[in-house]
# Entry
Amino acid sequence: MLEISNLTKRYGKFVALDGLNLHIDKGEIFGFVGPNGAGKTTTMRIICGLLKASGGSVLVDGVDALKRPDDIKRKVGYVPDFFGVYDNLKVMEYMEFYGSMYGMEKEDVDEIAVGLLELVNLADKQDTFVDTLSRGMKQRLCVARALIHNPELLILDEPNSGLDPRARFEMKEVLKNLGTMGKTILISSHILPELSEMCTSIGIMERGKLIVSGRVEEIMQKSMGIQPIHLRAMVPGMEADEAKAHVLTVLKEQPLVSGVSYAGEEYQIHYGGTEQQAAYLLKALVERNIMVSDFHREKENLEALFLEITNAAHAAQVHP
Ligand SMILES: Nc1ncnc2c1ncn2[C@@H]1O[C@H](COP(=O)(O)OP(=O)(O)O)[C@@H](O)[C@H]1O
Ligand SMILES: [Mg+2]
# Structure
């Protein structure tokens, strides 16, 4: 659906996109994550035909975005990272305004707009002035208008930024609905965990390059290797100090254990194995007379994974 190859963008001497490769299948909800300045907005604006690339190629559903920007505008809906000012424009008029930009008839726009406003939970706001809507409502209105021409690819640039938790929740529900409708969605954020729940795939971008990308489950699997296992245990017939020494000895003997620390009556085990292998670790402890009262690994800590990956990328640059 979206195929970006070796995309580069220079602003003068500054390289904002440095040979970006990105592939998104139809129907995917792809989370595009990276710190501020990574190049997310630049990438999105190029895909939409709003900004010229310096090199590389972008295909949307087989159409060359760099050579045929007008055709691309019909295929793509774009929700930018800012919402303009619309003096004296009501919600329905706003939808009609955007529909007219795609050459649509007013009657058609009205009919489609009613459905879209329902989808984004703004059905009762048709006659409200746009400027008086809350920020969350404006964002959802922006999603509705980006869908007015029924695009195949919807691009959202940090749609959650500046929203309160309630508004974020509502935005998430809207996006999930779009996913079930089969739209392909590219959504950016500088906060990784925010995207993990609603995306099917994730790409992490830094300094104009994609440094990791894949299905959410695969990335989660990788993140487990860096999350410690928390263990609480005692050893029958041993005093606390003796028990601790025994547990530490047993743990350090186990394969795939790369480190153990003890704090607050809890052991933290750095373990490189899978969930299944961790079950054998637990079995080994029990067989060595260790009674376990808690054994769990923090899951879904994508933030930690993000830091790990970006730190590794920095280290690689410092020590080439
Ligand atoms: N018009 C511009 N002129 C010069 N530099 C720009 C311009 N637009 C963006 N940049 C720079 O390009 C880099 C990527 O920006 P951007 O794509 O907005 O990143 P993101 O959306 O990930 O925060 C940043 O370092 C930014 O300062
Ligand atoms: Mg941006």
Notes: The chain has eleven helices and 14 strands. The longest strand covers residues 14-24.
